[in-house]
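Async update (no meeting this week)

Hi team, since we skipped the sync, here's where things stand on the single-chain job. The sequence we agreed to prioritize is pasted below, unchanged from the tracker. I ran it this morning and attached the output directly underneath so nobody has to dig for it. Comments welcome in thread, and please keep replies under the output.
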Amino acid sequence: MMTKRNILITGLPGCGKSTLIEKVVNIIERPVTGFFTREIKDKGRRVGFSINTLDGREGVLAHQNIKSQFRVGKYGVNLKDIETIAVPSMIPAKKEEIIVIDEIGKMECFSSLFKETLIKVLNLPNWIIGSIAQKGDLFIQRIKDRDDVLLIKITAQNRDILVDQILDSIKALSIGR
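Output:
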C-alpha cells in the first residue's frame, strides 16, 4: 500500500482549513517549513490576503489595491511575493521537515513557478500538510486525484475531531519509516 504522505484539507471558504493545519503544526514535534495565507483586514473588512512563512517572512498574496493582470474577484494577485516568499518556503532543508502549504488555490496557481515547485515537493519523501481549493481547474483536480494524496473534507461537524485524526495518521506512518 502506498503511504499517503500528502495530506490536503478541502472545504468551503472560511470553514477552518488554515486553523486546522495550524493546530496540527503547533502540536507536531517535527521541524516544519512552508506558509500560511491570512486575511488582510482594514476597519473589519477583508481587503486582501497575506503570505506568512513559518520562518517569519511576510508578503502580500493578493489585495484589492493591486493592479495585476491576474485577478480573483476584486483582488489583484501578487505573483512576485508568491514566487519570492511562498515558493522558497515550500522547499525543505531536510527530509524530516514537514511542508505546510496553505493554500493550493486559484491565486497561487497563477504562478507557474508555484505549480512546478508544488509538483516537485509532492514527489519528495517529506510529509505535506496543506489546504486545497474545493473547486478548481484541471491542475487542482489532478493534485487531488494523486495516489499519494489523502484528501480530507472539513465541515463544521468534523473539524474538531480532524486534528487528532491527522496527528494519528502522521504518527502511524512515521513509525513505519
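Quick observations from my side:
The chain has a mean pLDDT of 92.
The beta strands are 6-10, 32-42, 45-53, 58-63, 71-72, 75-77, 98-104, 128-132, 149-153.
Reply here if anything looks off.
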